[in-house]
Design goal:
two-stranded antiparallel sheet; single chain; 24% helix; Rossmann fold; alpha/beta; 194 residues; 11 strands; 31% strand
């Protein structure tokens, strides 16, 4: 069982269908009172950094998610759910994120923005897995201070962090739920590790 955070701007439908296809049970948490932190937390999302943080704060989830993750609850951030891990973003410099990962969220400076479509991700680090193609929709990318947190890297006019992991925190800039069999396998492996 995982806890799936529902906030306006989240891509809840596609992640729900992906979990159902994988036969993974989930509970929707739309407010601080509904999030127990007793199981894995998935924060999916599309949209802007500022609007996403405002929506999460409005229902009291900013502090609840931060406390649960700091307390050891497994966390999977997808797309904006990855960017919100950082303190701030170039997209909304005056808006505070969750502040769980040190680094920056930067806007792509070249190429067509946003990046929309399939792109190859390359694994990094010891015990690396195979590369694959995943689906992205992003104008911004994360650059953690500790580059060893990057588990997958992608190229879009520059090399950027496509996925990261630190302890109980996993995050994907891409959408595993829209990335075919390769993405489904990543999602399943995360859930299997709970």
């Amino acid at each position: 069982m995982v806890e799936l955070i529902n906030f306006s701007g989240g891509n809840l439908g596609s992640i729900r269908r992906a979990l159902e296809r994988l036969d993974i049970s989930y509970k929707i948490a739309a407010s601080a009172g509904e999030l127990t932190g007793d199981r894995g937390i998935i924060l999916p999302g599309v949209g802007s950094f500022g609007a996403a943080m405002a929506a999460i704060e409005r229902v009291g989830l900013k502090q609840r998610v931060s406390d649960a993750v700091r307390g050891g609850s497994p966390y999977l951030g997808i797309c904006i759910g990855m960017q919100l891990l950082f303190r701030t973003s170039e997209e909304a410099p005056d808006v505070a994120g969750l502040g769980l990962i040190d680094g920056e969220v930067l806007r792509f400076k070249t190429g067509k923005v946003p990046q929309i479509g399939w792109n190859r991700i390359e694994p990094l680090g010891a015990g690396s897995r195979t590369p694959g193609f995943v689906y992205f929709v992003n104008s911004y990318y994360c650059r953690p201070v500790d580059q060893t947190l990057t588990t997958f890297q992608a190229e879009y006019h520059i090399s950027f962090c496509a996925a990261l992991r630190r302890g109980n925190i996993t995050a994907y800039q891409f959408h595993p739920e829209r990335s075919g069999e390769f993405g489904s396998q990543l999602l399943k492996e995360w859930c299997d590790d709970l």
